[in-house]
Amino acid sequence: MSRIVLYPLFNRIWHWTQALLILLLALTGFEVRGTFRLFGYLRAVNLHHTFAVALVVLILFAIFWHVTTGEWRQYIPTRAFLREMVAFYLTGIFKNAPHPVRKERTAKLNPLQRLAYLGFKVLIIPVQVSTGALYFFYPNLSASGWPPSSLWFIAVLHVLGAFGLLAFLVGHVYLTTTGHRPLSNLKAMLVGYEEVHEEAAASASEEPSA
Amino acid sequence: MSALLPFPSRQLRQALTGLIVCSLLPLMAQQTAPAGHGSYTKLRAERGQSATADHSKFKVLQGPFKDGDGSAVTRACLSCHTKAAAQVMATKHWNWRPSDKKLEGYGKSTHLVNNFCISTIGGNQEACARCHAGYGMKDSGFDYTKAENVDCLVCHDTTGDYEKIKGGYPNPAVPLADIAQKVGRPGNQNCGVCHFFGGGADATKHGDLDDTILKAPRAVDVHLSKQGAGMACTDCHLSQAHEIAGPGYIEAADRREQPRFPGEPMSRMSCAACHTASPHASFVLNRHYRKVACQTCHIPAFARGGLASNLSWTWSTAGKLKEGRPYEERDAQGLETYNTIHGDMVWAKDVKPEYVWYDGHMAFTRLTDTISPARPVVLNPLQGSYADPEAKIWPFKRHDGDQPFDPVLNRFIAPWTAGPKGSGAYWGDYDWDRAIRLGMEKAGLPWSGKYDFVKTQMWWPITHMVAPKTQALACTECHSRQGRLDRVAGFYLPGRDRGAGVDFLGWSAVLLTFCAVAVHGAFRFLSSRS
Amino acid sequence: MRNTLGFLTILALAAAPLAAEGGSDIKGKYIFKKTCKTCHAAGASAKEVTPLSKTQAQWKAYFAAAKHNGGKEPLGKLLKPEQVKDVQAFLVNHASDSPQPETCGG
After folding, report:
1. Which of A167, A128, A163, A126 is nearest to A48 (CA)?
2. Rounded average pLDDT over A125-147
3. What sections of A101-183 are H helices per DSSP?
4. Among B125, B73, B93, which residue's Cα sits nearest to residue B418?
5. Half-sphere exposure of B50 (CA within 13 A, CB side)
6. Residue in A42, A94, A152 nearest the CB of B524
7. Domains defined along chain A, listed by start
């Protein structure tokens, strides 16, 4: 057994802060939509704005981190082991087969994770941030001639994005339990490192680079 | 992105500031108390002491005046205030019609139709003149150029003892000399003797104006209540040369957003004139200003003073007799449900207003206009829509009813209503044929000889009786399904509108994901045990 | 008590047989409101009174007897003689069994 550091401190702070903000944005956002009552409408609206600004600030920090540390490379999609990963989730996992991809510091994400998180970063988050901004500035846009129907499109896109995030969250939380023990992935995301078996570590040298 | 460029920079700056403020201070974003301003009651008392003339010292006002001879008092007033009558005679209060010739026929002294007493000109002038600022209006022959016909006292009586009867004359029992010696600036009572009683009795017509305002607690009217700001009607309805600011027929309500400056023409009749266009601590609330009238949130209901306002007046059922006599019926609350002289009526207090896009312009219907009786006729169609940059969502009292009309000419009819038994007036003899024939003769208008009734509707803007801010509407009164703005169309309202199928699509996606992981997890669990 | 469209009723029936021994119905209404109602109103010091409180005959009998407040406070002390006649005219003309029964506004 040895320890492999997967998630440096900033990575963990960013991840958990982002998770918390997205949850709070979902709570306040769905209250504004009228799905339930929790904070009170005006407070929900104001909190939603607050969390949105906080999330944007966090994203800016995260972009800076990804660029300066080169961590962005971890999200470059690869087809290597993609089929094996799909096969693992569809059959191997039920037969106690070994995980086809070994995590290491410079390649902490398996090919499926790369795709999912890249989609999250370049699709869902930008859609949410931009439609959110358009939503907030809509009175100004409306004053400068945007038609009333444009808010309908903005709002619908924003809500679809929110549902997308919710679905993502469900899958994401479940998949954390697919490590070698149900809670080992979660623990890694909290403490930053993971216990790795020696033989797994040895076979890792065969993994092709992306 | 090019659409972003034409942003007015000030607006954008405000929005950005707002985004920052409301992101930093979410918990303080509920309204905070505004800085209090002095009681207008006190200000007015001080201003009163600054008067330089004691009218009781003037010999010309000593009287005695002959009982009911208002004109004698007017002559006495004019002996000093030489230009006053000329000023009054140029006003709406005197002419009951717009001075603009292009607006011929719009005014209660001419062809305007309303949903209550229908029209003055079918011979009802003498009765209606109780609320005319003049003496001697008995028929269409009233002399609008005779200075001594001007009624000074109805607006300038400070004793509350002045009272007018038919023809606009003072009640002969009124102590004219005493009142004349105590004249002063108009108070709420002076405006109220007519404007509280529009439609024939207290609270009937407007819904937001009635006699209870004079003694209202702050909860009923923060502005006019003595425990509130203690303001007078004339603090907002400023006057210039006796013309009092107010939206007349056709002329738009004042929606000017900025305060007026000294020397500018009258009117302080927009909330923003005192409260500014951004009166809330919350940026989000302030943003509503562009599309939502202040009244919409701050007047949660009309007829809040304890008196019921009339919501419906059905002329077609008038005229029923019991044992040959007119009668009235009242409900458990004492509200009139039927009266032989009016027909079926509906009254209510604390009524939720209806909300409509309104840009300050409304059209009116005249006796000379052609109507299409197939559908209810809206007597004063409102102008405005979401796309109209001048329009906001305003609260209104909707008044329903029906009116006699000429089914051959397709025009409304001016019946003679107010008159004694045997005269042919409707309230004397309950005979529409005769009342209409005589009324149309008096009005000088053609009538085919046939009449029928058509459903009508009238819209009354609600703007007085502003509630304390603690009673302002909660967000979810409108931002919810089946809320107050349920039927206000033309825009997307968060909390009310969803987008068809979006919820279904979204929740399906979430649920499917959940099912997929549940099945996957179950298989994992089962396989790990085997 | 609210008097719905009351004054219109009065105007509508303006034929108003002016009456009772030369008093003025219109003046009487004013005096009744200004003087009598200060005590004879709901919540005031004396029993609420409206023209409907009595029939025409009862009002006539009341004024003939002249025993206001049990005789302790004759109407002549509160009003001039012609004002008493005006009030009588108003009350009789609008009594409960009159052709134009009438409460008095407010």
Report:
1. A128
2. 93
3. 111-119, 125-136, 138-143, 149-175
4. B125
5. 6
6. A94
7. 2-206 (1.20.950.20)
Per-residue pLDDT band at A125 (split at 50, 70, 90): very high
- Answer whether A90 touches B (CB < 8 Å): no
Contact list, B342 vs chain C (CB under 8 Å): 5
Is pLDDT at A187 greater than 70 in this prediction? yes
From the list B466, B93, B69, the residue with the least C-alpha distance to B295 is B466
Q: Which residues of chain A from 104 to 133 reach within 8 Å of chain B, CB to CB?
A: none
* B13 lies within 8 A of chain A by CB: no
Check: complex ipTM more than 0.90: no
Pair A14, A71: CB distance under 8 Å:
no
Q: Residue B291: closest CA among chain A residues belongs to which residue?
A: A139
- Which of A45, A166, A173 has the most B C-beta neighbours within 10 Å, making it the best mutation to test the interface with B? A45
A79 part of contact set with chain B, CB < 8 Å: no
Closest chain C residue by Cα to residue B126: C11
Distance of CA B283 to the CA centre of its chain: 30
B 187-206 → C contacts, CB under 8 A: 197, 200-202, 204
Which residue spans within B94-252 are E strands per DSSP? 239-240, 243-244
Q: Tell if the CB–CB gap between B26 and A43 is shorter than 8 Å.
A: yes
* Per-residue model confidence as pLDDT tens digits over C28-68: 999 999 899 989 988 888 888 988 889 999 999 999 888 88
- Taking one residue from A and the other from B, the number of pairs with CB-CB distance under 8 angstroms is 138
pLDDT(B84) > 50:
yes
What is d(CA B205, CA B303) in angstroms, rounded to the nearest whole number?
A: 10
Tens digits of per-residue pLDDT, A137-155? 999 998 888 888 899 999 9
Domain boundaries, chain B: 53-96+132-184
Question: Using CB atoms within 10 A of its CB, is residue A152 exposed (0-12), middle (13-18) or buried (19+)?
Answer: middle
Section B31-46 average pLDDT: 57
B106 burial (CB, 10 Å; 0-12 / 13-18 / 19+) is: buried
Is B167's pLDDT higher than 50? yes
- Residues of C within 8 A of B197 (CB-CB) are 7
